[in-house]
Amino acid sequence: MEKQLVIPSAEPFLFTAGSSGCVLVHGFTGAPKEMRLMGEALYKKGITALGVRLAGHATEPSDLRRTVWKDWLVSVEDGIHLLSGICHKVFIAGLSLGGLLSLISAARYPILQGAIALAAPYSLGSDWRLKYAKPLSAIIPSIEKQKDSPRDDEISNGHVDYPEYPTKGIAELHDLTKVMRQSLAEINIPVLLVNSDADQTVPLWHAEMIQKGITQVHVERMIIKGSGHVITEDTDRDHVFDAAYQFMMKHGG
Fold first, then answer.
1. pTM of the model
2. Tens digits of per-residue pLDDT, 46-79?
3. What pLDDT sits at residue 237?
4. How far apart are CA 161 and CA 114, in angstroms?
5. DSSP letter at 132?
6. What are φ and ψ of residue 192, in 5° steps?
7. pLDDT band at 128 (very low <50, low <70, confident <90, very high)
8. Which of 86, 192, 230, 249 is deepest in the core (most CB within 10 A)?
9. 7 lies in some domain
10. What range does the domain containing 68 cover?
11. Domain for residue 4, yes or no?
12. CATH number for the domain including 40?
């Protein structure tokens, strides 16, 4: 009997369509499923969609405690190379942590045509405990998760994520925000930032700071109304998906 390690419905996915493709990257403690609706929408419009699973995610929380931020970036890099083998033009789009990785990838991988960051955090804030999160993780291995407030109950009931934040993972995420901020000035491909005005996890000022840091290219912005943090699974998701598609078409998709 097969003993599946990945949480059922949280597997990575590939929808093969046209010669333009998009790597889709989920968020911290999340799973490819939170990008699946976006992948399906892009596929229906002729875009090949690859949803990657970040290392340590969609299995069990203890796996995430053993990963570092470079493992997540390697997961994305694998996806970029895989998709470039079947598509002539490759874009990347990510949610939250996936947005950070998309922006870093935009600075590192010249093969990309454009990057879409959905609800990407500029920083994790100034809490003094962040500095000591790694050593504290030996004593406090996880932190209770406070749920976001999505508006689409039907979709959110099927959402797949870990019920807690591994403290070690928070430390790695904190380090990754520093890498992202250092990468912004090196980005020279088109960028689209999408955020919700009701996102309590990543308020709009995060996108404003990211935009200021990208100095080589014009940054496109979209603000949606009333959705929670996981905008790919909330009430205005179709507008998000259409904006992503239009962005890709505008920039050679």
1. 0.94
2. 999 999 999 999 999 999 999 999 999 999 999 9
3. 96
4. 27
5. G
6. -120, 125
7. low
8. 230
9. no
10. 13-250
11. no
12. 3.40.50.1820
